[in-house]
Every structure is written in C-alpha cells, then in structure tokens.
What we know:
Elements: E1 9-11, H1 19-39, E2 48-49, H2 60-69, E3 74-83, H3 117-124, E4 127-136, E5 140-146, E6 151-157, E7 160-165, E8 170-175, H4 194-197, H5 201-209, E9 216-226, E10 229-238, E11 245-253, E12 259-266, E13 274-282, E14 300-303, H6 304-315, H7 322-332, E15 335-338, E16 345-348, H8 369-380, E17 382-386, E18 389-395, E19 400-404, E20 409-412, H9 416-426
Amino acid sequence: MPRNEPTQGTEGWDGERSPGRRKAVRYAVPVAVAGVAAATIGLVPAFAGSGSPDLPKISAQDLIAKVAKSDVQQLSGTVRVTTDLGLPSLPGAGGGAGGFGGGQGAGKGEDGASAAPQNKLMELASGAHTLRVAADGPEKQRVSIVDKAAEYSLVHNGNELWAYDSGSNTALHSTAPAAGRHGKQHRTAEGLPEGLKNATPQDLAKQALKAAGDTTSVTVDGTAKVAGRDAYQLLIKPKQAASTVGSIRVAVDADNGVPLKFTLTPKSGGAAAIDVGYTNVDFAKPAASTFSFTPPKGAKVVEGDKARAKEQREHGKGIRSHKAVKDVKKDMGGLNVLGKGWTSIATIKGDGSGLPAGKDQGAGKDQGAGGDAGKFLDSIGEKVNGSFGSGRVFSTRLVNALVTDHGTVYVGAVDKQALIDAANAAK
C-alpha cells in the first residue's frame, strides 16, 4: 500500500459554499481561531505513538471532505491541554457564571463562583491541563478538568446542567435551554459553554478548516499515530505575510474523519501556542452512568435558575433590548472588520477619552491613579506613532492589539506594522 506523501494539496480550495458564506467565513474565522485561543483556551502536544503509518494517498480536498462528513457523536477519552500564548499576568482576572444560568449573581463568592464555567476558562488560558471528555449525542456530554488537587466537571444530561468543583465542594445547577431558543445562546445547543465545548480537537479543527480559501494553503503532510490511531496530517498555512500564525496542523483519524490533534504554531517559532490532542480515545457508546450526577454529601448546591431570576428582578430585564444593544454599539462607534482572511483586523472606534498618560507623557505618582495606570500600561505595551497619532501595542505570541491615545482599538492575529498601517489608513 503506498505511503501517503505531502504532495497532495489544494491551494485556495473553498468547497461548495455560496459566495456570501465564503466571504463571511474568510473575514471571521482567522480572528475567531486566534481570538478563542487568546481569550480562553489553548492546547500541548498529545502523546503520539511512535512511527508513521502507511496509509492510502488522499488529497487535501478529500481529507477536508472526510472531516466535514464525519458524524461521530459517541466517544470518550482524555485530552491533553497546554497553552503558551505569552499573555501578561493581570491581577483580578475572573468571571461570573453568567452563561451557566447563574448570571452575575453566580459570580459572587456566596453564589457559587468556584463552580462557574467562566472562572475555569480563565485557568485554561495558560499552563498544562488534562481534560476527560465524553459524549453520547446532542443531549449528553461531560467535560472534566483534572488537576493535582481537585476536579471540575460540567455535565449535560437532557434538560439538566451541572457544574461541580470538588475543591470547594460546590455544585451549580441549571436547566438546559431548548436548542435555538430566542435564536441565540450563551451556551451551545448541546448545553455546554462555548469555550469549554471548543476545547476539543474537533471544534478547533472545524474553525480552522473554514478558513480555507485564496488566503490559505492546505496540504496533506504525511501521517501520524495519535492516541493509538492512524491519522493523516492536514497542514494549513496562511499565505498572508502579516499573519502571526505560522501553521496549523490537524491530525485526522484515517478511519472516521474525527480530528484527533490540533496544533497551532506562531510564525515567530518556538513551542506551539495552541495544541490540543487526545491521549486516548474510544468511539464506543459511553456508559449511561457517565452522564449521571448527584451532588456529594455536604456539597453546597446553588440553583442557577433562581440566581438568574433574582438578578432579573433586581436589575430589570435580564437580556438587553435591541435598542440598548444599538445604544452600546453607537457609544463604541461600532465594531468593524478591516481586511480579509488571516490578516482581518477588528476595530472599535473610541470615544476620544484615550488612555491614561504614561511616563512618556509626564505622568508620575504625584499625579494620582492616572499616572500609575499609565506607568502600568507602559510596562506591558509598546509606544507607537503614526499619522493616526500615537498609542500602545499590546502583544501576545498570536494576537496583537493597538489602542490609540484616542481610545480606538485595532486587534487581530497580525503583526504590529499591520495594525499601524490599518490605523493610518483609517485616519
């Protein structure tokens, strides 16, 4: 049987999407891939087996089609997660349980913050983590984050949602929303928060593959063993020089088309910035007991639905009206996307108030909190100038952001010069 070689590829393959869909995908996906990585999760190489299996040759187009057609809904396994985004350590990072039925109230200590999914997402933004995952169709999923001292689990079973933190022995309970209710959800139709659901190779790979177009090179680059299974390696590379993404490598199960490993390497080199992969995986139907959850004896149980109802009573409508959303967008000057593909830049027009002055503008401790804030910004951001004026660039290994002194923000998975050029052009 002939060994697969990295000669089969498609340059600019875009499937059979409509022109409108292609345009939307090209604008949104590169930002989405890098943005999800920077804001939430990222993942270190899965433990791949030794040797490269001999597999029949396959073109990149056929391999992508294999992934798209894959309809595996039952599996269980362990996922190794590590992130190296080069994010600065910021004090006071955290979040509420909002999307998990608790609203802002659930983010408070007395209302189950330790079990709030958003708080756990912050932990996944750096370091190494182990996840245990299981799924049995759209109505049953379980994700557990295992560390040395404790375990955190999200369980979706029918209309029941549970989040449990063993460290604090706290459980957060909520009712799963009906799929598609009101058109939008903080959670996916399957019930799990978007961020944690996207902490699997399948979901990350689907986002990356949507970027295939005239801005992208897609090839098959050999084979690999991942979690004991034979896999093809799909190599995705941006063609646009200003992108900070070097390459994305997706190991695809040769039998069923399920992505087993996802690795994103920045153009600057070094260790993978995002790498998620199964260390073991089983595509048999998980036991029904996997999705059963009863709070341990003595656990504090917080009812997220009640917390949300209380918040709505205290703060009025729980969901902003369309008018309120429009007012916010108006105040922000609106969100706009410049460019296309991997060099798309999201921009939010500022209100002119600008950033606090730093040491380069004469601010010091004797000028109060503004001067201190300016010094802090100077310590983590690089001062830049252009025809747009001046501002600071805040950088990670993947995503860079330019905040002008007038408060306008330019952000994308692009290099510093691309941000400055965008700001100059928008002047």
